[in-house]
Amino acid sequence: MRSSGLFMEGASAIPPTGLTPAPAGFTAEQWTVFERDGIVVIPDAIGADAVAAYLEAAQRHLAGRTGYDPRHTWKIRDLVRRQALFQDLIDHPRHIGYAYDLYGDQTRLGQADMFARPTGSVINHWHVDGPRAVPYSSFSPILPLKLRIGYWLTDVPSPDMGNLVYLPGSHRAGPDETYSGLDNIDGQRTLCCSAGTMTIAHSNMWHRVCGNSSDRTRVNLFLSYTPSWITGYYSYDQDWLNELSRERRILMRAYADSEDLTRPPANDIPLFHDPDSAVGDEAEAHKVRRLTRYERLLAKR
To answer: Which secondary structure element, helix H or strand E, spans residue 107, and what is its range?
Structure first.
């Protein structure tokens, strides 16, 4: 038996030609924490060699930016187009399964950004991810419409180092429970972690960034996954898309016809081979209703 997704599954069936087996995602314990807190923190998820490679590449990109000033917060957008090392993050097996558990065949990479927060850099106020006027929670109060994967590339062992500050359980807050400003909130936590930590965060969870009074620059990557019909952010040229593997091209969802965002082309379904979402012999594969792993978990409760 192997742990894959939200519950234990048996050995995978042989996948159809050309399809990659479905990636592992939340364990049962991780899902319990995610439902309770709105965030899962996984120490040592990223090996030391990978951390060093990501950090070196990120710092090289920063140094090459016109007008770069290490005294200010810097954000490099659309990181996956910078080089092959970052392109691998589109469907990296260490994290893609968490998004696939939620969004299934309509998983999409919406954002891939790098942040550098040096001493004295800008402090973020309390916020949730996504739209502010009518937030995602208005439509999806339980599941996130954005799943935020964080790669922490520098040690953040104590507060006041540009840490993530968050309010556990606030992803379940009602519309009258909103926060603003920089004040501390009862029950808040400050993420203190070592380089190589990975976080999986719910978009409805209230959070902010504290100041950095240390002599170190905090550097991390954020990858945001959404259902394919959540649009916006970046556009991509066809030459770059043609270089990608099937799964990576699909995950970018750079469709010429916007209707494909809600009803993906037949060739893009299924995204992965999931033996627990078998296709009937009589059905057209791209029209089959496949349950996500979250939906299958609910069915077992």
So the answer is: strand 107-117
What tokens does 14 get?
């042989």
**pLDDT tens digits for range 206-229:** 999 999 999 999 999 999 999 999
> Which residue blocks in the chain are alpha helix, DSSP H?
28-37, 48-63, 84-87, 96-103, 238-242, 246-252, 293-300
Structure tokens at 167: 């309010």
pTM, two decimals, is: 0.91
Domain residues of the chain, as ranges?
37-260
Phi, psi torsion values for 138, nearest 5 degrees: -65, -30
DSSP-derived pairing of the beta strands 164-166 and 74-76: unpaired
Which CATH architecture is the domain 37-260 placed in? Answer: Sandwich (2.60)
Q: What is the pairing mode between strands 189-190 and 164-166?
A: antiparallel
Query: Are the beta carbons of 157 and 227 closer than 8 angstroms?
Result: no
Is the Cβ–Cβ distance between 147 and 201 less than 8 Å?
A: yes
- Report pLDDT digits (tens) over 232-276: 767 788 889 999 999 999 999 999 898 999 999 999 999 998 877
